[in-house]
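STRUCTURE:
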């Protein structure tokens, strides 16, 4: 066995004695380098490595424990044995506390003691280096883990915390270690999460594994969801020694799951809309087709025997049925464009007073004047730039609904007020009204009020109205009371820009 020794001793007699003791030792070969000053020792350690340093604390250029401290700064991994006087054993013990592997008392040194001390000191130094390297590796793995990791006492006191957790919470280690984990700000700001944490600690302290998803308030004020686990570490007798607390930020995953659920809900909604569409089309087309089939059949079989008035009646029924089917097809085409986001907005010059009067006449003719429509106009100038087709969809659908859902003979009101560069249309009826529970959904495609009974309809009209108003950059308000009537207020800019 070959051992390289640096002897730091300013007393030549003590240095010679140590050299002689080493020479008579058996089974070990020594290489001894001897210096008298601390600065010489530092220089030697800078040039080459030694297995062990035998150090006298009292040197010409350094004295006491400072000698050890300065040398350890230069060679932190070197094994060191401090040599003390007979009355300095307390200093020897303090030297060991400060990092020396051992100490020996001058005047009591024998060859056997010296060799044994050197060997044990080297072994302890190597063991210490291995432990330090193991700790370094543990710390590197501990800190680089993507998990937010803490080591806790069974009572929840933080013993260690990794860098990932420190960065996540925006705190420093000294503000966490030695304190209960629930005193961290991130838990203090989340009372519900704090209670769940304490529940988990109580279970883990009894030896149970705990895992739960917990919502916390993050340092920037946003809600963060973490997957928290508490794992107890036990000794051979089953006693819980410490707890490993691990957490992962799964907020992105939860948001992605929420988006997937939204997409699935949308797909389900679209599927239901398709089913409603098929049902609606088959139902709404059946009535006018039946009318056309019935009246055309009668005309074919009996027209030669009927009067002109009776023939005209059935021709009128056929024309009304065809008109109804044409309107229905138009609504379906418009809804298709709305769903595909391809409905075009094409404003033209319009005089709104003239437009409204013409629309009222058309509605009165279609209704055979069963529901008088009172039109009132206010404002000096109602010249506008609006999409004529979409405006007809807006007012036509609302007026036809007012007629459809109002008792015969009741008056429907249409008011137009042009001022402040805006046109306000207000349609008021005294019909069945819309239940409050339906108001939130009444503008959805295919949705119809729960109180319409057997009155036919598609549930397309108001969905078209909503989109047409949006394309004009306007606003739509609905005020309704069941059994008392409904008021629609549409506010549009007089000069609408192409969307």
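SEQUENCE:
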């Amino acid at each position: 066995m070959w051992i390289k020794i640096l002897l730091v001793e300013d007393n030549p007699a003590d240095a010679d004695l140590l050299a002689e003791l080493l020479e008579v030792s058996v089974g070990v070969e020594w290489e001894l380098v001897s210096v008298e000053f601390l600065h010489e020792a530092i220089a030697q350690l800078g040039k080459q490595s030694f297995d062990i340093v035998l150090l006298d604390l009292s040197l010409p250029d350094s004295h006491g424990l400072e000698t050890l401290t300065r040398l350890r700064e230069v060679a932190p991994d070197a094994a060191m044995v401090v040599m003390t006087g007979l009355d300095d054993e307390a200093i020897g013990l303090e030297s060991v506390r400060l990092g020396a592997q051992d100490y020996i008392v001058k005047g009591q040194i024998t060859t056997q003691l010296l060799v044994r001390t050197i060997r044990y000191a080297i072994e302890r130094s190597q063991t210490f280096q291995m432990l330090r390297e193991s700790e370094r590796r543990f710390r590197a793995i501990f800190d680089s883990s993507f998990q937010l990791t803490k080591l806790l006492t069974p009572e929840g006191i933080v013993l260690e915390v990794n860098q990932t957790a420190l960065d996540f919470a925006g705190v420093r280690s000294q503000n966490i270690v030695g304190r209960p984990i629930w005193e961290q700000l991130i838990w203090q700001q989340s009372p519900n999460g704090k209670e769940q944490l304490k529940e988990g600690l109580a279970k883990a302290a009894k030896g149970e594994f705990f895992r739960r998803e917990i919502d916390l308030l993050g340092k920037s004020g946003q809600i963060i969801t973490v997957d928290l686990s508490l794992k107890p570490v036990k000794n051979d007798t089953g006693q819980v020694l410490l707890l490993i607390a691990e957490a992962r930020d799964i907020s992105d995953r939860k948001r992605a799951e929420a988006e997937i659920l939204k997409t699935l809900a949308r797909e389900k909604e679209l599927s239901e809309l398709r089913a409603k569409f098929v049902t609606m089309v088959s139902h709404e087309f059946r009535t006018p087709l039946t009318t056309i089939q019935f009246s055309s059949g009668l005309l074919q079989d009996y027209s030669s025997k009927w009067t002109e008035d009776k023939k005209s009646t059935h021709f009128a029924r056929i024309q009304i049925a065809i008109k109804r089917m044409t309107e229905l097809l138009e609504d379906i085409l418009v809804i298709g464009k709305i769903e595909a986001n391809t409905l075009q907005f094409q404003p033209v010059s319009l005089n709104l007073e003239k437009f409204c009067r013409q629309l009222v006449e058309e509605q009165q003719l279609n209704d055979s004047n069963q529901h008088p429509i009172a039109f009132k106009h206010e404002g000096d100038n109602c010249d506008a730039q609006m999409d004529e087709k979409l405006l007809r969809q807006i007012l036509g659908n609302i007026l036809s609904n007012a007629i459809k859902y109002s008792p015969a003979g009741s008056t429907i009101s249409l008011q137009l007020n042009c001022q402040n560069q805006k046109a306000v249309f207000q349609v008021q009826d005294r019909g069945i009204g819309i239940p409050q529970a339906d108001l939130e959904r009444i503008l959805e495609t295919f949705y119809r009020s729960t109180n319409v009974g057997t009155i036919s309809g598609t549930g397309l009209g108001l969905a078209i109205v909503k989109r047409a108003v949006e394309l004009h950059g306007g606003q739509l308000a609905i005020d309704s009371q069941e059994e008392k009537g409904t008021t629609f207020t549409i506010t549009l800019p007089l000069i609408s820009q192409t969307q």
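REMARK: The chain has 14 helices and 19 strands.
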